[in-house]
Amino acid sequence: MESEGDSNNLSGVQHIILVLSGKGGVGKSTISTEIALALRHAGKKVGILDVDLCGPSIPRMLNVHNMNVHQCDSGWVPVFVDQEKSISLMSIGFLLERPDDAVVWRGPKKNALIKQFISDVAWGELDFLIVDTPPGTSDEHISTVEALRPFRPMGAVLVTTPQAVSIGDVRRELTFCKKLGLPVIGIVENMSGFVCPHCTECTNIFSKGGGEELAKYAGVPFLGCVPLDPSLTQTLELGKDFLQEFPKSSTYTSIVSIAQQILDKASDSSS
Amino acid sequence: MADIPANAPEHCPGTGSGEAGKSSACQGCPNQSLCASGVSAGPDPAIEEIKEKMSAVKHKILVLSGKGGVGKSTFTAHLAYGLAEDEGKQIALLDVDICGPSIPKIMGLEGEQVHQSGSGWSPVYVEDNLAVMSVGFLLGSPDDAVIWRGPKKNGMIKQFLRDVDWGNVDYLIVDTPPGTSDEHLSLVQYLSASNIDGAVIITTPQEVSLQDVRKEVNFCRKVKLPIIGVVENMSGFICPKCKNESKIFPPTTGGAEKMCNDLNIPLLGKVPIDMNIGKSCDMGKSFFTEIPDSPSTMEYKKIIQKIQDFCAETH
């Protein structure tokens, strides 16, 4: 027998990143998915753990919503998104009989499943594990952070939209990270500006700059803005790889730059 | 309130749950036989007290969505503004999004505090006939995070329903967090004896949102909550410069319209994206007064009328 970590399913995982936001619908799952795809394009092996139990979005975004998980000796086998097995995914979406089934669970039951997700998924060797969370600062978040603590996560990426209503929730999320001792990798501002496909006029539908200001105010890194891009929404709806389909867009540049900052940070922390 | 006793094991399903006393986690718990006997599953005495309180409230409407960020709070606030335009009506707005209360900001009430009086918590008044209650009013600073697990949130919701001194109210509108979990179950449970008129479900047009909303519809059916209808928010954007419409959140699977047809529930309306809505919300003002002639305002008013008609029919 080797070290005691050997018995654990997360021992082969190099870096764990949580994607958080106080507010719902700001693009946590979108950013999680795109970061995963960008890291894959950089040659990394990535796992995604979707702990949004009441509203899992990632299976559809990666076009694997009809797949099932299987059991093996060391636990659940995650679903592989591609043939090369470079992205694997675990989500409650795979455990539901029908996709429209509502998971009407109170906290304790959600906490039990999250613990199982963290201990019982056979991820194998991964460079990155990205954990996508539901909105808020409640059961799922406390349980996830507590269960991951022994594996020393690299930190949290906080996603916000530019408007003040969303920034307010992210300020609370920053306090959450501080209280639970979770490092903040940085803030991503999503949906910042929409370029009209007809006349290329840029409209800041949800205002602009809020994320960057918040990062400055809170003294955490600002990772970048991702514009409101209908082709991004569209590719996620269809479960396609945006980075492969639209490599010339400014959205592509933003996402790749965010992923690069995460890579840099990861190599800093492991060296 | 203790849905979970202090001496319960880690995965306690909660004393009110159907699994109480029967789940694997219950093995060895000192309360197991009590739970299994079904005694604790009896109704919470608070349900009667809340019924008492709610007898002064004519109509109760929940605003729900499986998905976050689709505009529940924006809609709730403006439903309240819209209903309050009739000065003869008393409107109450209760925000039960405990971890992410947006209502105080949207309605320009940040920094307000609630006061304790002999008859309970006094809500904050936006107008003479529009009262608001939110966990946001109980926090010391805008950075304060409410890091609470379910049972504590449920206790708060119970207090909100039982202890707020609304007076006589024509409409109570409840804004909820996304999902189908503690907050939603508690609301429905505590209001079980008080006759909820129904739920308005908010969605955006894309499938990623609709798939969560279908879950919410199933939730409503499971807990026998009537559905007043669905509002499709952010449904297309008109460029202010060239006036062309873009589908920012494309309805790849037919949008809310098809979903409503499939599930046989009414579609109350489709509200286009207007950047002035977000702006007015950030400033804490009603966009009905900020942009009275926007197509979004008109659509909102139509929807509010439909909701009033629905409520008038049920009572």
Overview of the structural elements:
Chain A: Pfam families: ParA. Chain A: It is found in: Cytoplasm, Cytoskeleton, Cilium axoneme; Cytoplasm, Cytoskeleton, Microtubule organizing center, Centrosome, Centriole. The complex is a heterodimer of chains A (271) and B (315). Chain A is an alpha/beta fold and 271 residues long. Chain A has a single domain (14-264), classed as Rossmann fold, CATH 3.40.50. In chain A, 38% of the residues lie in helices and 22% in strands. Chain A has helices at residues 28-41, 58-61, 107-120, 139-148, 164-180, 210-218, 230-238, 242-245, 250-270, and strands at 13-20, 46-50, 70-72, 75-77, 79-80, 87-91, 126-132, 155-160, 184-195, 202-203, 222-228. In chain A, strands 1, 2, 5, 6, 7, 8, 9, 10 and 11 form a 9-stranded mixed beta sheet that branches. In chain A, α5 packs parallel to α6 (210-218). Chain A is globular. Mean pLDDT of chain A is 93; it is low at 1-6. With 315 residues, chain B is an alpha/beta fold. Chain B has an 8-stranded mixed beta sheet, sandwiched between helices. The two termini of chain B are 32 Å apart. In chain B, α2 (45-54) packs parallel to α5 (150-163), α5 (150-163) runs parallel beside α6 and α7 packs parallel to α8 (255-263). Chain B has a single domain (44-314), classed as Rossmann fold (3-Layer(aba) Sandwich), CATH 3.40.50. The model of chain B has no long low-confidence stretch (mean pLDDT 91). The chains are: A alpha/beta (271), B alpha/beta (315).
Describe what is shown at a glance.
The complex is a heterodimer of chains A (271) and B (315). Chain A is built from 9 helices and 11 strands. Chain A is of the alpha/beta class.
